[in-house]
Structures
1.
Amino acid sequence: MINDLSVDFSGLELKTPFFNASGPLCTTLEELQALGQSNAGAILSKSCTLELRDGNQSPRYVDFEGGSINSMGLPNLGYKAYESFFSQLVRFEKPIFCSVSGLSISDNEIILKSLANHPHLNAVELNLSCPNVIGKPQIAYDPETAQKMIAMARRAFPGILGVKLPPYFDFSHFETMAKILSQSDIQFITCINSPGNGLVVDPVSETTLIHPKGGFGGIGGKGVKPFGLSNVRKFRELLPKSIQIIGVGGIFTGMDVFEYILCGADAVQIGTAFMQEGPEIYKRIETELNDLMIHKSYSKLEDFRNQLKIVEAK
Ligand code: DHB
């Protein structure tokens, strides 16, 4: 039996609830077409800037036993290239999302106003949480700046708009951001971006694993999942139902997807595991999620979405 894995995402239909995180394997037209051919429920392009960027020096992405560390530095082809790609992705008949990460409020405004006129783009994910651009702090750790950026984005781009957030670790920070997001008339949030500025050491060579920023970079992989789940769960509690939530962080299996949906995620994205396994991962995860739902006698995602219970006190 095949379950119904579809998601109504702000009126867009995702045939499966998982797709790529903006980051790995979504920079070139060929990579985006491979996502189109895969079982991913949507196609999301690499965070774009006004102009093409080569990004930081290599080594800038390295897998290690506990996950991955990266400091890519926003290598991308510039927003105009992505605008030209979107029309070539329509044939895959799945929603097309563009991640936007301009280096200033005015860069983002130019990009968003241009994207607003694109006939084939379905949604924008405004990145407020890139940890890897030298000299640029993560916007979403500064609520005032984040609020201004979101207000500008809302004016510039009338379509389906969401923001990509970094992990928060304190209830007061969740509450501050939830207030801003609730008042901002956006359609979704994506959480979490990779916890920024981790450091992974190679004890043999006595060096850092990556070169940029003194070896500091965003961390992906299994250890990140508890924080992805906590951020989804907390924001689901604090935000109005009109704002949907995409969960990200440490997803490797169908069971991981199940856990995110149980915590309230509407859909999920996959970063490190997609980088390691390639576009075939979406077929494996679909099979695993489907089998798990059959085992649990669930036929659709609504049967268990946001149904997490607190374990009884003993
Ligand atoms: C990059 C990393 C991120 O976590 C992000 O959100 C955007 C860009 C990068 O280094 O390219």
2.
Amino acid sequence: MDSIVVTGGNTLNGTIPISGAKNATLPLMIASMLTEEPLVLENVPELADVNSLSRILANHGVDYRVEGKKRESNGLAGRTIHFFADEIVDTTAPYELVSKMRASFWVIGPLLARMGKARVSLPGGCAIGTRPVDLFIESLRAMGAEIDVEAGYVTANAPGGLKGAQYRFPKVSVGATHVAMMAATLAKGTTVLENAAREPEVTDLAQCLVGMGARISGAGTSTISIEGVDSLHGYRHAVLPDRIETGTFAMAVAMTGGDVLLKGAQAGLLENALDVLVQTGVTIEQKNEGIRVARNGAGIRAVDVTTDPFPGFPTDLQAQFMALMTKADGVSNIRETIFENRFMHVQELARLGADIKVDGNNARVTGVRKLTGAPVMATDLRASVSLVIAGLAAEGDTTVNRVYHLDRGFERLEEKLSACGASIKRISA
Ligand code: EPZ
């Protein structure tokens, strides 16, 4: 298994290109199943999760073709991938595939909408929390689907097609909003989703669906209306820039000091997180080409944060922010409200010398003067990258094991950081 070795102490200076968003790409790929015509996605990041989902979709009959040259010559430009779902050959998503990636459960929406049936394995446990699927089931039931959960599978049928409905999510869910919105595009009548997720990735999916012929309004607000149509058609859509990758690199610069242009990044996608960074003492500037992040010799101020659905502080940046706060002047209280078990990085950060006390969903981080490199290991994607950030500011070598977590969601992380002066290398086992 590969590992990454970071030797701390260098500031970051230069330009980092921001890739297309993983969490927009995945639902967009799944949306290709809604039409017999090709869906072409541009700015697709080269990530393990994208490759896994391509294979999962292929099991349902979705062919795909990567446009243009090979990876090496494409650089970091983002790939263009054509998805062809002219025939859905299988409406079952088996356990072996769904258990590899939770988001593949989301195929239930397009399968049910287009084929009138779906049998999808429950995704099972996950390191960051229990992550149930009740909101998916209830919203699809509201649209007339008959759903049974048995023997680890969700079986859904809508022989006469789905029907428009009014549904209020009792809790904000990104995935359930994606799925209900996709399903409603082909339902008879109008669906109104209330308390919907407002994440930019939901808006990106809605824009693509509208390009495919769907009638959607309100995406990006908590009430989304979808007027069902008979069929959707092909479209070409560019994936929006990854706000979590943007925030991650911004925090890395905050941690090491330096001056970096995050090329292609859009400040509007992560207002709250950037406001918090400014409060820590970082300079943030939106330029035409992207966001400039800089911190000179001044110390890092401690700031409290609470994770929340968009537009609040994203849970996907909580671990990275905690890494930053380990070196702040003072005490920061970090509260995680989205997932019940998303503090797995705490013990690993402690191995580097961080002072963090966890009490339920609160972490109290007292900044220390010095972190010291050590071997560390993480159990999820964002936790892994938080250890890289800490390693950039630690004395000596930090070896991050289980790099496959990083490869799921960060495109060429070590290449992007080393281009800005970080001492970071991958060791292949
Ligand atoms: C998406 O997960 C993201 N994944 C996650 O990013 C992100 O952390 C999360 O949204 C929150 O922003 C993708 O987009 C692929 P949710 P999702 O449904 O949709 C509960 C990363 O690192 N819930 O919004 O699965 C759930 O347990 C990943 O890139 C129910 O109770 O998250 C959680 O507490 C990790 N019942 C809360 O809602 C349900 O039926 C929010 O989860 C569904 C969810």
3.
Amino acid sequence: MNMETKTNDMEMKTRIQEKFQTLFGSEGEIFASAGRINLIGEHTDYNGGYVFPGAIDCGIMAAIKVNGTAKVKAYSLDYDEYVEFGLEEEDVPQQPWARYIFGVCRETIKRGGKVAGFDTVFAGDVPLGAGLSSSAALESTFAYALNYIFSNGIDMFDLAKIGQATEHNYCGVKCGIMDQFASIFGRKGSLIRLNCKTLEYKYFPFDPKGYKLVLVDSCVKHELASSAYNKRRASCENAAAAIRKNHPEVEFLSDAKRVWLDEVRAEIPEEDFLRAEYVIGEVQRVLDVCDALERGDYETVGEMMYQTHFGLSRLYEVSCEELDFLNKLARKMDVTGSRVMGGGFGGCTINLVKDELYDAFIAAAKTQFEEKFGHAPKIYDVVISDGARRL
Ligand code: GLA
């Protein structure tokens, strides 16, 4: 990814091993995992709907080695912090980054996996707070590595669920499965459509000739994003519960027909109705985008992205002034598709841009955004890459 923050993998590996040598007097085995993008299908995962993500070529890399003690000794190169913790429930560390590693250990143990003390040094190049799932990259790196090192034989989906449960139980975010799924299952050059209810998935080679996928990072991160996220989820569950009274087959909101939602409009808060209206539309848009991709019809893909942005901004209310501005600018410049990506409340827009428009769009986004908001956005060209792996 021609990312402004992207570091060279070899260089990162060397820095990690050097630090590992200094701290622990040997070398560790190296594991890595990736951040993710999502072409379409936002806030559908915890509603049992479809998502369409892919792993990207920036992520987390870690050196790991069993240390023969009952403690994890962990060093974060990026935070320049060292933390030690035990593996019992009461040993939970305070540092947020260490909680992710601790959570992965605990969730592995809860699933019957073995985890003993280990040394680790890790670093990453996923921009933080940009909606590219740096936390899923961290969880997936350790979930994958522990499974390998301790020969636990946990299957890939359960590795993704270990990361998701870490968010739920140790970090306070009731997220869906998309980020960890993409970060574990990611494959170079392909997006993956996942049905979050049945967990069926399909790889779609993605190489839109004549177009580029580019992220424009507003560099805005809203506080309380995780409590607002959990609130959105609660609204969806509330709407689904109301619909279920009339239609017992509705397990998740994604099972509901639009007319079934209309039937309960008077019974639920208007806010919950609007959230649900967005989700039901979005589930269908993922399928429409997949069909359009198979036809090579990028104009339709792009139009769906704009519809998603409208829904995320007006119905789901997870956009913000800066992201709406970038979306409007994209529309004005005839960019094929553009929308806020990920959980929202800041972060990036994802844009499908014709090659010949790329330079002009990036230049306009930089200058006009800076004029209005006083700081320049960051630009990341998307390269779809492999997910969790041993190097
Ligand atoms: C965050 C969550 C995901 C998903 C997206 C929105 O990234 O971690 O599970 O819900 O938001 O699509």
